[in-house]
Specification:
2 copies of one chain form a homodimer. By secondary structure, the first copy, chain A, is an alpha/beta fold. Helices cover 31% and strands 21% of the residues of chain A. Chain A has a 5-stranded parallel β-sheet with strand order 3-2-4-1-5, with helices on both faces. Chain A has a 5-stranded mixed β-sheet with strand order 6-7-10-8-9, sandwiched between helices. In chain A, helix 6 packs across helix 7. Strand 6 of chain A pairs antiparallel with strand 6 of chain B, so a sheet runs across the interface.
């Protein structure tokens, strides 16, 4: 029997028509569709593809066993997640070894942060895996902001707000253009770092979604999970 | 009369089916399509959309008056390009003011380097302009490389190889993950900077195109325009 292929498919930032034509075709034809979600929630990836699946599509939700209950640096966090990814990968591998193709949903781009890559490395030695790149959430954020992010020879830094404050401040001071992800609980720290670096940023919430909103970062007191901070580059512009 | 809209449409990295569904629909329905190209060449953007246009679509090629003939830091370079962008924007503005929608092709993403943004800032005060984000060339490059670019709390730096060698070296040394664009004539300098920073990179040529190729950077002696160097992040991976 020929093994099936596991497709890690980038869904883009959230609007269904910002998915690639390749992703759209794969999804609409898929017999098996897997996606991560927080336990008890429908999940953002599944929400994006609402109405696109075949009536006979078999769904495989993968419920994260932990999100913020255990600190990231606790060894139990890594162990719990490793076991979870092993289980998910084993299920997808069995489907592929049984000849079935599987589409795994990935918000944004599958190789840019995110969880799909933890399945990818576990599946790669065993079954065919292909990746469909996607429009990143940050690209939707700078489109929403109404201004280009990089010009000419600008350097762009993409940093998670989870970094220590001193490092975050240094990186903000030393770059032309900036994207900050993973803000959530780190909003106050990020605002201090931006101010300490003498810069100004905008916060884009829910880019490419109906709730899209753009504000100066210093006016923001609470940032949802789907928010990205930007500093626009000011490089060469004839 | 209602003004038409100028749409800056991200085409993605080069494969037609890596365009977004929104870009695909806009292009197939477009009556007016504008794109940049090097004089005397068909142009990469136009090549990507081959076969997609309506039979009655009116094309407006915008031929760069200079590419590498005048150094970037020569004032004549900026002046020549500024006059060129003014002319192009005036034409697009006249179309929109006459009630016509226009699609302007942008390789990759319209707000991530590239030329569309020079029209965008000139058109924005006068006519409606909308931007459709796209899959970046770098996302296609890391998909082609077969490994995720960023994990966990990795910092990603995107730098043009046009930077001075010392700055390039410092930025390569200080980042987790790296993307280098605009390599071309700067290949030797980039190779020295990577070595001086004690890192190793891969070069991805023609990502998502039929000629796609991935090699260790140190083995490469000549880099085509469509090439991107990558250093993959090694962050947290449970």
């Amino acid at each position: 029997m020929t093994a099936g292929t596991v497709h890690g498919v980038g869904l883009g930032p959230g609007a269904q028509d910002l998915m690639s034509v390749r992703a759209d075709r794969l999804l609409r034809g898929a017999r098996h569709v897997a996606y991560f979600r927080k336990a008890g929630r429908p999940g953002q990836a599944r929400r994006i593809i609402e109405g696109m699946l075949r009536p006979d599509a078999v769904e495989f939700p993968m419920d994260y066993p932990v999100t913020t209950e255990i600190p990231l640096d606790d060894p139990r966090y890594a162990a719990t997640l490793a076991a979870f990814y092993e289980d998910c990968a084993a299920h997808l591998r069995a489907l592929a070894e049984g000849g079935e193709d599987v589409v795994v949903l990935a918000e944004g781009d599958p190789f840019f942060y995110g969880s799909f890559m933890h399945l990818y490395t576990r599946l790669l030695p065993h079954v065919p895996v292909r990746v469909v790149p996607g429009i990143t959430g940050m690209a939707a954020a700078w489109a929403a902001s109404g201004a280009p992010i990089t010009w000419g020879d600008d350097v762009l830094t993409v940093a998670p707000a989870t970094l220590p404050e001193a490092e975050l401040t240094r990186r903000i001071a030393q770059t032309d253009a900036l994207v900050v992800m993973k803000i959530g609980q780190n909003l106050a720290k990020l605002k201090r770092a931006i101010a300490a670096a003498g810069r100004e940023a905008v916060l884009v919430e829910y880019a490419a979604m109906p709730e899209e909103r753009v504000r100066p970062l210093h006016e923001v007191d609470k940032a949802p999970y789907f928010s990205i901070a930007l500093i626009h580059g000011q490089g060469r512009r004839p």
